[in-house]
């Protein structure tokens, strides 16, 4: 006769639980986290237009937003069309204005706790522009045109 412990150990659910426990996942991710992340990104895009800090200039873009599982911290990756140095200076200005930005975010979103905002400079837009330029040069070279034109 099988004991309840043997039945539990041999069940497929137990193996699935062990798999997720090994991977460090204790619960299945829901759709709410993705919705909250997108809402934060959308609202921050609108709020960035109202920031009047002189360090926050130029064409800024929110590349990515990562929110912790308990919604206590949000990492906001900022990129600038003017280059990585402009993104770094914008991050300093945004960090200085993070209290205002967080308050505005709390007024626009109905969350129990508004996450702490951490701004991080990212150069993915400049990197993407460099890759596009290289591909255009290769295309011109393949068609016999001068790539320096």
TrEMBL record:
UniProt xrefs under Pfam families: RBFA
Localization per record: Cytoplasm
GO cellular component: cytosol
Alphabetized GO MF terms: ribosomal small subunit binding
Role this protein plays: One of several proteins that assist in the late maturation steps of the functional core of the 30S ribosomal subunit. Associates with free 30S ribosomal subunits (but not with 30S subunits that are part of 70S ribosomes or polysomes). Required for efficient processing of 16S rRNA. May interact with the 5'-terminal helix region of 16S rRNA.
SUBUNIT field: Monomer. Binds 30S ribosomal subunits, but not 50S ribosomal subunits or 70S ribosomes.
Protein name: Ribosome-binding factor A
